[in-house]
Specification:
By secondary structure, the chain is mainly alpha-helical. It has 3 helices and no strands. The chain starts with a helix and ends with a helix.
Length: 91
Amino acid sequence: MNLRVFKKDIEFFIGEFIEDCELFVILNPHKDAEKIDEIVEEAVDLYNDLKQKAAHPEGNKKAYYTGLIKAMFEKLDELSEKLSAVVSAEA
């Protein structure tokens, strides 16, 4: 995996997730958006953390970046589950 590609993946996947959150808020303006804002903040924190970690690898680079990729998708899955819970609770 190329570092440049990994950084683009971080931007794409987390950006798409944030757009999904914003779309829900836009399509449902009458609903409370505070919980969605908290989820978006977590996604932004994840973005910042991954970008910082990608810039400063430790040890075996291949294993390090493979671990970061895995961590990114696991955390995005957790955030997606939180978003789904908020959306279904709001319905």
